[in-house]
């Protein structure tokens, strides 16, 4: 941590800052430059983090520059090798590109079974489907709730595809754990710390989606909440950030893939369906995600998008999904992976 | 709602869309232009909203343009007059500019009482203070929890200032309702629909903060969740959006004030502390907020910012807060309000 | 064009708007809904565009919704087939993925010839290099100017690679036309209309880079300026937009590729060097760009990035560029293209 | 400047970096922490700036942190007191809040004289009006050019209001200097370095508008270009940044006002007309700007907005402008200023 003093900071102000740092049990390196004095702070990271805000307010201080990342357990420094998360027997991370596919929400037994059969035949490795739907409007379809979870479990039993589904609070989490193979925490809940802690105590792997305005650090800190409770089975998912390209619902930040792969050992997926909001752009962006090095995809597939109760415009039908899967194989192969 | 057909859409595609609309019990107005056919949809709003996504996916459709806002109860059309919310006897909305002030988090009995006394003396009308703190890092101070609520209640009894404090889940909400006068829902939870619904069933007024990447519509829809459960005592709060002006933590979107005042009857506050993240910028932005027509302010004030356990850098000390209050009075007066 | 009247608009206000529209020689379709009257406007597009702003200000009007895009010549409706631009004999657009490579700026004869030889050997199809450098700081290296252009021409003569280089004003444009094969208009000048018009009168193809906060429409309108002067040889280039992922200089908006390919017949390139600002991320994002369907790449390559006078941190060395080219071939192949 | 080495950087890598720094004539302070070595760089700022990029690419380096701002002449450290710019005898900066008002573009003699008379009567101190219009569409009205400048000069002679008008290239600059009292450089040209340098050599004061995605540093560096050529008469203007509040054209970043006032000695104006794009929001945001400490305003006023050839929707009519001026006076008074 480095404390940059103001241009006109007095000797006394510098001294007061140094004393505060040393009083906390940390060491200082003082460097007097032409126009500014800079104080390097050496010692325990936790202590530095606690001290940081108070130094920012100290008299004569211009700013405090952090040198280390605020996260620990999720960092590549902590675990240098790629983590492979296993959900219902299916690996996420590693040589095989994982593909989670299925409808936005479970609407009926017929719909979810048709979707599951279709995505299974096309090569998906996990099944998605929402039982509790976080909808912007209180007047929209809100999901089948426990009945939806039961139908997802039936679809898993029939196809062998492990099930990934979202929980939005502790009560839902308990139900999700009972029926599913992987807990999804949605973008809107990425900083719902109560939920993150509960998921950290659950015995299922967690798929954590990036909030639409979350920085890379905020995403990693949210994952840190889960790991800090003992659950190391966490998968990150880029799903688009708030942007101004009005032709897509969000701006899919694919550069987050190589950035995250450098900073963390956790697997990184991409959701091109929410990221674009339009089915026409899902296939090119799915291909781009795999080429960028993503460990997998999360894709919305519906047997009949025109009659979907939610997210129809961004859902592929079974045929288009099968076409996408076929087009992904040589790209994965070009990167030394399989799909 | 208006359906714009693609440039080369066939007569048959147009017909299929028209039949789908009429089949849902809505009427159509067809307008054949030089390069495109446009279909106006007339009838029940709820039906239109349900039909919208499926029309977007229909063959030959370029896009669907919504004409009406998706919210109802929060809109000015629903209630043309300004709502005045009352929290612990204090009005928010109306001629008097409300000022909610206090520390980011309750740290100790001494700290919260000193803060409460100080902000009361300077003219604040409500007391803020966090008992449960949503911190980006799992390793940071997380709040005094119920003990913090008890101390807030003591501070209220002593000063007469009603208490506003944040709840992050249903369990916390129950405690907050027991001790406080107004429930705060934080920016990170703006789309935590479970919490919004619970708050909608509570008997206390709600302060709803805008998410850092939430559009105006998303904020109004989040409020609609609360009103749709029967709780009409909702106050909105702009607190900064994600931006790229690195000198401030967020970009305070003051234009949200006149925009919201036009669209909704609910009171609108501004939080310049989180909006800027630096105490130096709090006073000018607080003055700007009042001048822009905000119904009130939410300001972080700490008796000793340099030793605050959270948000020290953006907290005013008591003296600076008193100075700010003095400077606000003539501005409020210039707008025909008092403070 | 559709005019949405306010909820409480009077019969008289509707009548006044209708008269204004008809007075301009356009027709109207009036649709009276439950809560609003909507007026469809039919007729000549140019007239509509001129009328639009005045209707927005008319009494009783809530908003005006444009149905058509404001651009003409660049649109796919105008030319349904992909345009192939030819620069110095090299095609951009079509089955072959074009690769423009070279240093940020021409620094010396030795440097540009080494760069040209290196990128040629690795398979680049055009050479880039800046003679006039738009630098954020007036104190940074500003380019070799005409001498730089002469060296670029020498590199072309030696390697056969056509030369792409930036012009920032009319005087530079004249020089660029004398020495180069393609005019680059940089992101900072995307809305420099004087320059766009001059480029539209030049006899060379133009590479137009998207501004860092330009919408898709603004980019297409900037291209329209060039085409409207008679120069149809325009290539668009996505190079990153302003974002908040602090690990990259900009956020590379790859979804702009399929969006632009749908809207326009012009070829679309991607510049992963400026888009990320860090050489480590250039290769994955270059692969992603090709997988997303880009017609080509623009990549910064320097024989010795550690001693580059500009953009060293985002430049590949020759070896890494050759590795990138090798990795791109199977991806291009997977999409039915070659490189 | 501080160089942070990677966690696993070798002794040899550290040594190589130190030698490179010392070889450039700078000194180093090495601080070996628990997990990282940090190298402080001391010495001449220009040399550091030149070295920075090459250090970022050096083997074993994680990142380079700049301590000093890259600008000099515009900084408060260079000139601690507020600069007062004088345009045609009217001060901008200082106790009096300057108000530049007038139409977006000069459309006719009648229109500009009516506008000038109106804004003069209401208390404006300078007259604005565009002769060359940077329009997004090549098919829109592009301005009266020299005839427009002549009309502006006539309006000045009649009212005594100095004239501010935009130049988009060197040729226009020459004409603007001949007729006007202050050169405006628009947001789209904020990084048109050719134009900035030319303006730096002109003998008129310059109004420099912030680009819609320009950071505070980029704005200050653009101003530095002008000052570095010898012209210290520069006024900065915030006019809205790219945001996602769809109800306003841009997001007016009023926090830029106190941030800029802290960093630079140059006067800071706000343009609420472009910042919001809707006349309804101009008055509240103008009041907010003055309350935030802006040195002045730039407001679009048109005698007949419904028939304006450009920017009608965001223009005030004379009556509304007079009302705004009246409402600003007590706010300016509350801040110890006059208007």
List the helices and strands and how they pair.
Four copies of one chain form a homotetramer.
Chain A: E1 2-5, H1 11-23, E2 27-32, E3 37-42, H2 45-57, E4 61-65, E5 85-87, E6 90-92, E7 98-102, H3 109-122, E8 126-128, H4 146-159, E9 163-166, H5 170-179, E10 182-185, H6 193-201, E11 206-209, H7 216-228, E12 234-238, H8 256-263, E13 268-270, H9 272-276, H10 279-291, E14 296-300, H11 318-334
Quick rundown:
The structure is a homotetramer of 339-residue chains. With 339 residues, the first copy, chain A, is an alpha/beta fold.
Structural notes for this entry:
The structure is a homotetramer of 339-residue chains. By secondary structure, chain A is an alpha/beta fold. Helix content of chain A is 38%, strand content 18%. Chain A has an 8-stranded parallel barrel, surrounded by 7 helices. The interface between A and B is large, with 49 and 49 residues.
CATH class placement of the largest domain in chain A: Alpha Beta
Q: Uncertain segments of chain A of ≥5 residues (pLDDT<50)?
A: none
* Form type of chain A: elongated
Spatial strand arrangement across the major sheet of chain A: 7-8-9-10-11-12-13-14
**CATH domain fold name of the largest domain in chain A:** TIM Barrel
Report Rg of chain A: 23 Å
Largest interface: A-B, 49 and 49 residues
Outline the biggest β-sheet of chain A: 8 strands, parallel, barrel
Average of pLDDT of chain A? 94
List the quaternary state of the chains: homotetramer
Number of domains of chain A: 2
Give the helix tally of chain A.
11
Beta content of chain A comes to 15-25%
Decide which structural class fits the backbone of chain A.
Answer: alpha/beta
User: What is the CA-CA span between the terminal residues of chain A?
Assistant: 44 Å
Overall CATH architecture of the largest domain in chain A? Alpha-Beta Barrel
CATH superfamily heading of the largest domain in chain A: Aldolase class I
The total beta strand count of chain A reads 14
The percent of residues in helical segments of chain A reads: 25-40%
| H/E element sequence of chain A | EHEEHEEEEHEHEHEHEHEHEHHEH
